[in-house]
Design a protein that fits this description.
The complex is a heterodimer of chains A (about 190) and B (about 800). With about 190 residues, chain A is α+β, with helices and mostly antiparallel strands. Chain A is about 40% helix and about 15% strand. In chain A, a hairpin with a 2-residue loop joins β1 and β2. Chain B is α+β, with helices and mostly antiparallel strands and about 800 residues long. Chain B has 3 domains: about 160 residues, Aldehyde Oxidoreductase, domain 4 (2-Layer Sandwich), CATH 3.30.365; about 190 residues, Aldehyde Oxidoreductase, domain 3 (Alpha-Beta Complex); about 325 residues, Aldehyde oxidase/xanthine dehydrogenase, molybdopterin binding domain (Aldehyde Oxidoreductase, domain 4), CATH 3.30.365.10. The longest helix of chain B is centred in the last third of the chain and has 28 residues. Classes of the chains: A alpha+beta (about 190), B alpha+beta (about 800). At the A-B interface, α2, α3, α4 and α5 of A face α1 and α19 of B.
Chain lengths: ~190, ~800
């Protein structure tokens, strides 16, 4: 049973960007507002508050979710990753752009930047699901996130670029793995 | 030295697609927008918006609201009127009717969504709760729902506007009847562009903090025009301007919508002054759709006459603007149809024209600036009529444009409204688009598709755009506004350069592109320059609107840099034993012209000025800081064109945009990738306006498209890849030959998309003149054509 404060706020515990965070949130507050106001994660952007624009998209338990359509109290027991945590992903040092962020930068896939955190989350979810997407599949998946500046083309370019780079890296790793294991067995022998 | 002087800058970093330095902050969520600002003791304001479109308040009771938890203050229009009598907007031209927008309406309410009360509480949620406890009784007045009703003047939309007419102008009344009588082909139409909302992804927002001890008012605004709103707030709130600062944090898109003084901005200031605490007003999406300035709703009744060769003999255009209930500040209703007729003929030789404009008030949210402003409507009408003329005469859409565009031998060409056009690559644009599309191949594909019952269409549009808008252009647009901007350039002791500019950025990338300009002004690497912007404390300026910041940035930075370069040249001349006018700066060196070996590092010369008195000429002023103004000496004209290929499904009425093309000549490009980003974003908005977006008011004046589920913005599925080609005609009015750009795709791409829809359906005898060309409208047109056959 979760404890309610005197003013009706509920104590909520979640793993946020790799750390356990404990915060009080009013039952009616959206997750977007809770993250912004209780935890100061203002990289979560509020664009429409009715689930259409996608600017507030974050990762919840590894899957993209619109934080304006969830309540803050629903974060309890979940793992949340906002754009602020992206540079620390996959062993990142916190000061180096994630591959998707870097691709957005190189392809001029952002202008005002307001839709960008949500776009990055949706793009990450897409690539986790489908490492080898076509341009049409990327457009289809990104169609839940509205960008008013770029015309989308360079965002699609950036996502395709990361997908291609991951395939190259995976192929290189595949090629390297057997020889690495051979060396290991030789050493053991 | 005059404000229009052009300093010499040799492009080196200019022209390179330098990756944007603002990106890391934006990509990591670390960049701060106005909604991210939290100040100690800050309160939140929420505005009660009128549920009725026209009427007055007979009683309003805020006592229950004021007693609610967390609520600090509730005000009605009467409370505000004591402190500010409203925001007047007018143009000083004969016959123009100015209006005053009340900060909160306390007498006549003129549109649904107009603010009538405000609650201030410790959170936005509590402030919104309080609004629900305000009890209001209204008396309804008759509604003027559209321009047809406004024109009859049977009822008034706004009691202060006689005959519902803000402005009428028969701007040009050549004899066109003779030409129409002699024409080999005459085409005409009544084109209705939709009422739209620019819909930046970040809604509007403003934070005001009044400090009673120092009597200072500090504001944070998601605005494109910080200096202008500072001055207007000082005037309208009677606040000492020297104690007023407007700070612009990162802005999540503007597109013109944030280039106004909004009533809520004045309101937040008044509340903070009253309460002595910071007050934040951040609108939600519904408020944005209801109350942020709307745009583009025009009716263009246009006709064109051609000779048998397809040459334009005359044009007639009567444009009517649905201005909504008030003029917005600073543009007024002139920004729509009236500015449109002034460019209606522009890229073409039109020997005779009759152009008139009506700006009418209705019971809708006021219109204001949106990318491409009022140019979009007449350009759309003109380009569709050119296609019709071509069809009537049996020539290609490219050929009819080739026969009419201004050519090199025509320059300087004075348009019938008095615009002297000195340059432009109009003919080259037509040729380029035709080559990009491969027109013969398209015709084959179109014919083959028709045999399968598929309807492909091609649309074209050729435009010219007055860019870098300053005093000369504003005057040409019948808006007697004088403006200038400043930049301050300082060379630091270690040879690095700091620039402070009045320009702000809403995604355009000025931190990067203006650094490229300043780097080339001193011949140093772009990394050695930092651009400061975003506070009215340091520079003045008109704002980031109308494709002006590249031009204004180059002009101001160029002039200020030259004032500093004079000092550097004077000392370097002594050190290098040369004359000052022999000295130039490049590759990080200050050297004798044509002899890079006879030079020394830039930082070394600068260091000498700061730290080695012996190197100074007599009576030397070592200040390596200068502020300069700039205002273009004349209208700067960019040009280009767009093309669209669409497929219309006549069973469902759905239009799919297959491919878009853009040609842009904005002079010397500072950063080509940034230029292309502006084009692509504008084209997406053009597709939205022609196929999806429409603010719909019902018979009671209620906005029925008040969410993004109803007001449809284009998504990644709706916008195709866009092929872009560049032409470069350098301007001699701007350093490095730069012209501005950014607006162009919303001036001209809507016409291309609209033309393509019409081309697809022309074989069925269908014309589409009302936009957006929604599935319903197309389906109805196809059904009607089927019945009539």
């Amino acid at each position: 049973m979760r404890r309610a404060d005197t003013d009706g706020a509920l104590e909520t515990v979640a793993t946020v960007n790799g750390q356990e965070r404990r915060f009080s949130v009013m039952p009616r507050a959206s997750l977007a507002d809770a993250l912004r106001e209780q935890l100061g994660l203002t990289g979560v952007k509020v664009g429409c508050e009715h689930g259409i624009c996608g600017a507030c998209t974050i990762m919840v338990d590894g899957v993209p979710a619109r934080s304006c359509l969830m309540l803050g109290v629903q974060a309890h027991g979940r793992t949340i990753r906002t754009v602020e945590g992206m540079t620390g992903d996959a062993g990142g040092d916190g000061r180096t752009l994630h591959a998707l962020q870097d691709a957005f930068h190189r392809h001029h896939a952002l202008q005002c930047g307001f839709c960008t955190p949500g776009m990055l989350a949706t793009a990450q979810g897409l690539l986790d699901d489908n490492p080898n997407p076509t341009r049409e599949e990327v457009r289809e998946t990104l169609s839940g996130n509205i960008c008013r500046c770029t015309g989308y083309q360079t965002i699609v370019d950036a996502v395709m670029d990361v997908a291609a780079a991951r395939r190259v890296a995976a192929a290189a790793a595949d090629a390297a793995t057997p020889s690495a294991s051979r060396e290991a067995s030789t050493a053991n022998g | 030295m005059g404000k229009g002087d052009v300093a010499y800058i040799r492009p080196k970093s200019i022209g390179v697609s330098v990756p944007r330095r603002e990106d890391p902050g934006l990509l990591t969520g670390r960049a701060r927008y106005v909604a991210d600002i939290v100040l100690p003791d800050m309160l939140h304001a929420a505005v009660l918006r009128s549920p009725i479109a026209h009427g007055r308040i007979t009683s309003i009771d805020v006592s229950a609201a004021a007693a609610m938890p967390g609520v600090v203050l509730v005000w009605t229009g009467r409370d505000v009127r004591e402190r500010c009598s409203g925001l007047p907007a007018t143009m000083d031209i004969p016959g123009f009717v100015g209006t005053v927008q009340p900060v909160l309406a306390d007498d006549e309410i003129c549109f649904a969504g107009e603010g009538i009360a405000v609650a201030v509480a410790t959170t936005r949620a509590l402030a919104e709760d309080a609004l629900e406890a305000i009890v209001v009784i209204f008396e309804d007045y008759p509604i003027v729902g559209d321009v047809a009703a406004a024109k009859t003047a049977e009822n008034l939309a706004n009691a202060k506007v006689p005959r519902n007419l803000l402005y009428y102008s028969d701007r040009l009344s050549d004899d066109v009847e003779t030409a129409f009588a002699q024409a080999a082909a005459k085409v005409e139409g009544c084109f209705r562009t939709p009422r739209v909302n620019a819909s930046p992804m970040e809604p509007r927002g403003f934070v005001a903090r009044y400090e009673w001890t120092s009597k200072t008012l500090t504001c944070w605004s998601a605005t494109q025009m910080p200096n202008l709103i500072k001055t207007l707030l000082a005037i309208f709130l009677n606040f000492p301007e020297q104690n007023l600062e407007v700070i612009t944090p990162f802005v999540g898109g503007g597109f013109g919508q944030k280039a106004h003084l909004h009533t809520e901005e004045a309101l937040a200031c008044l509340l903070s002054i009253e309460l002595g605490r910071p007050v934040s007003w951040i609108e939600d999406r519904q408020e944005n759709l209801l109350r942020a300035p709307q745009a583009k709703q025009q009716v263009n009744e246009m006709a064109m006459a051609f000779d048998s060769e397809g040459r334009i003999l005359a044009m007639r255009d009567s444009v009517t603007t649905d201005a909504g209930a008030y003029n917005t500040i600073p543009w007024t209703a002139l920004i729509e149809g009236h500015s449109g007729i002034l460019v209606a003929t522009d890229p073409y030789r039109v020997p005779a024209a009759a152009l008139e404009s009506f700006s009418l008030v209705t019971n809708k949210c006021p219109i204001g600036a949106y990318r491409g402003v009022g140019f979009t409507g007449p350009v759309l009408a003109r380009e569709i009529l050119l296609d019709r003329g071509a069809r009537a005469l049996g020539i290609s859409p490219f050929e009819i444009r080739r026969r009419n565009v201004l050519r090199k031998e025509d320059f300087p060409y004075v348009s019938r409204v008095g615009h002297t056009i000195r340059e432009g690559t109009f003919l080259e644009t037509v040729d380029k688009l035709e080559a990009m599309i491969d027109y013969p191949a398209f015709l084959e594909r179109q014919a083959a598709a028709r045999k399968e019952g598929r309807y492909l269409g091609l649309g074209l549009s050729i435009f010219s755009e007055p860019t870098g808008i300053g005093t000369r252009t504003m005057h040409f647009l019948d808006s007697p506004i004088t403006s200038h901007d400043t930049a301050t350039v300082r060379v630091e002791p270690t040879g690095k350069v700091t620039v402070t500019t009045g320009t702000v950025t809403a995604g355009q990338g000025h931190h990067t592109t203006l650094a490229q300009i300043a780097a080339d002004a001193f011949g140093i690497p772009v990394e050695d320059v930092t651009i400061n912007m975003g506070s009215t404390k340091h520079s003045v300026g008109f704002g980031t609107v109308a494709s002006r910041s590249a031009v204004i940035g180059a002009g101001t930075i160029g002039r200020a840099s030259e004032m500093v370069r004079v000092k550097i040249r004077a000392v370097a001349a002594r050190l290098l034993q040369a004359e000052p006018d022999e000295i130039e700066m490049s590759e990080g060196m200050v050297h004798v012209r044509g002899d890079p070996g006879r030079g020394m590092p830039f930082a070394q010369v600068v260091g000498a000025i700061y730290f080695a008195d012996a190197t100074h000429p007599e009576d030397f002023d070592p200040a390596l800081e200068a502020t300069a103004a700039y205002d273009p000496a004349d209208i700067i004209l960019a040009n280009g064109g767009h093309a669209a290929i669409v497929e219309v499904d006549i069973e469902t009425g759905l239009v799919r945009v297959e491919r878009m093309y853009a040609v842009e000549d904005c002079g010397k490009m500072i950063n080509p990738v940034v230029v292309e980003g502006q084009i692509r974003g504008g084209v997406a908005q053009g597709i939205g306006m022609i196929l999806l977006e429409e603010l719909i008011y019902d018979a009671n004046g209620q906005l029925v498209t008040a969410t993004l589920q109803d007001y449809l913005l284009p998504t990644a599925d709706d916008v195709p890849d866009i092929e872009i080609a560049h032409l470069e005609t350098p301007s001699d009015l701007v350093p490095a030959g730069i012209k501005g750009m950014g607006e162009s795709a919303m001036i001209s791409s809507p016409a291309a998309v609209a033309g393509a829809v019409n081309d697809a359906l022309a074989c069925l005898g269908i014309t589409i003149e009302q936009f957006p060309a929604s599935p319903q409208r197309i389906f109805d047109a196809v059904s009607a054509a089927g019945k009539s056959r």
